[in-house]
């Protein structure tokens, strides 16, 4: 599984060091999500894929096991490895979400992502406003400043923004709600790379203003105000992707 933030870091165009296991996972995973390997289709034989990706049988088998754990494929005796229905995909897996960033636009998926954000962010910000500590507030202010001074760097801005969400999730003391970060990262990456509602620079400037106001509300334990601001931030991101 990739680390949270890997998708945002990729916006700079920098490539991670080559790892054959991850390379095969990404190649097949991206192809499945993009529709190059249709639902229900059977992948090529081991021999063909070993030749295609230039890896050993061990590396290929481990990669397929990882994809199966993510719900994308299913291995069956005498049949081969078949692409699973989307209903079995683990959409909370950051790597599966990241593959959707590179796939053709899917408005229905984007709507679903923001519905999930709406459902999980409400209790998260309420809990954060109640349980935040001085250290949480310090970190929120620090990352807001990093957003403010990021200039034209989408990577720096996006990572700082993601850290604000992470601090809020951490302040809420609910480990399950923290699983929303993968969803936030994909929607944030989409918003940063699409100038739909407003130009990118204007979008980033407005986001900074709203996050600074959100930090002040969390610091003052103003849960209702913080919830309204968090909802406005989500809607701003959503408008950028539509």
Could you give a quick summary of the protein structure above?
The chain is mainly alpha-helical and 242 residues long.
Structure commentary:
- The chain has 242 residues and is mainly alpha-helical.
- The chain folds into two domains: 6-88, Arc Repressor Mutant, subunit A (Orthogonal Bundle); 105-241, GntR ligand-binding domain-like (Four Helix Bundle (Hemerythrin (Met), subunit A)).
- The protein is 65% helix and 3% strand.
- The chain contains eleven helices and two strands.
- It has helices at residues 6-9, 20-34, 46-53, 57-69, 94-102, 107-131, 134-148, 154-171, 181-192, 200-219, 223-241; strands at residues 73-76, 80-83.
- The protein has a two-stranded antiparallel ribbon with strand order 1-2.
- A hairpin with a 3-residue loop joins strand 1 and strand 2.
- Helix 5 packs parallel to helix 9 (181-192), helix 8 (154-171) packs antiparallel against helix 9 and helix 9 (181-192) crosses helix 11.
- The mean pLDDT is 93.
